[in-house]
Amino acid sequence: MALSQPEIIFYGPLINPKSVSSFQALPKCLLAVGASGNIDWIEEHVHESALQDVLAHRGSLNVSFIRLKHGEFILPGFVDTHTHAPQAPNTGSGQQYELLDWLKEKTFPMEARFVDVDFARRAYDLIVKRIIDSGTTTCCYYGTLHLEATKILADVISKWGQRAFVGKCNMNRNSQDDYVEATVSGSINATHALISHIRALPPPRLVEPVLTPRFAISCSGPLLSALGDMARADPSLRIQTHISENRNEIHTTLKFFPEATSYADVYDRHGLLGPRTILAHAVHLEEDEIALVKERNAGVSHCPTSNFNLRSGICPVGKFIDRGIKVGLGTDVSGATSTYADKQLPLSALLHLATVGGAQVCGFDALLVSVRSDTGNPGLWSADLDQELQVGVAGGKVLEAWLERFFFTGDDRNIRRVYVQGRWIGGAEGEL
Ligand SMILES: [Zn+2]
């Protein structure tokens, strides 16, 4: 059988998540990426002395070869299942508010500014690059309610080469006068127009549209129903929305939808709860709602930092995992800064949550991570300091120790390169 010729081969340590409870740490791995950006092949244990023989056998002697330095490793890229691109300029501010006041005082006024397409272009260019450099190779984005600005968001993401889902917020009530959609038909028409725009973007087409009813309080029943109809008519469309972030929000939602038996039931009765739905937060779901989410096979985006900053509560993520509900991590800017730390969970679970979905695509979406001193992160105890002090790692699990340090004390300085579909698109080392 003829072997395809890879474009690039990495030799060094690879972290490969397997499940919530396990991951592989492969210290001497050969990984070949093809011209399509997919992983061609992996050889898991290749000793230095056998390297040339293996490469010759694979017919891969004259390709771009990257030998990782001591302290570097390859990790699947991070998947952020919930981010509001237009809220990035608000990161770290307004945290004296709880959710509904925070939306009114901070979020909606900032999002309203994106009616200005020049502002949107400048802002999104900075925001998307920053998200890529933080190691996010796949991102689920909420734009604003504006069609033109959200087209620009999709264009910018496509230009930078990130894999993403992009949605225009649907919201036709309970917002400030200059930041609300006037009619259901206007909201739906703009949504169709955005979908057409995204599907016409140039190859490699890593951006997909996602229906984005902001949350039940922002949408009238007829708007939710119309979006449910769109989802039913197009089985490739995903849906993202918020649920049960805060007690006051739940109370208000049920006031607006008195016929519903629960918050989850609001989405379900409008045809918006299914296997393609991502529900952000889900902090306060009742038992019957958890059962419904599981039955509909919807996924939950867990946003721990946002929940902490806005004092929303603690998401029972361990319970969701136990029940077999799909869970991923979301940063939810600007209620949050990027973090993957939840010390209640083992390293394998954190890795799984942070990279979930990465394993489901065959494209090479990966990070070249360094835990060396020359990254300039003084907070991270580096691999070369270990060498200098001749500090051993318990059980010889050196790679696991590096991963743990990166998760708990690493930052964007340690993310040297970001690859999406085999293309180097960002990271601290800059682009090719
Ligand atoms: Zn959110």
Overall tally of domains:
2
Roughly what is the average pLDDT, rounded to an integer? Answer: 89
CATH class of the largest domain: Alpha Beta
CATH architecture term of the largest domain: Alpha-Beta Barrel
End-to-end distance, in Å?
A: 33 Å
Helix tally equals 14
β-strand amount: 15-25%
The coarse silhouette is: globular
CATH superfamily of the largest domain: Metal-dependent hydrolases
CATH topology of the largest domain: TIM Barrel
Structural class of the secondary elements?
Answer: alpha/beta
Low-confidence stretches: 334-343, 357-361
Pfam families: Amidohydro_1 (PF01979)
Domain Amidohydrolase-related: 73-424
GO molecular function: guanine deaminase activity; zinc ion binding
Protein name: Guanine deaminase
Features:
alpha/beta; 2 domains; four-stranded mixed β-sheet; Metal_Hydrolase; zinc ion binding; 432 residues; 34% helix; globular; Urease, subunit C, domain 1; TIM Barrel; binds zinc ion
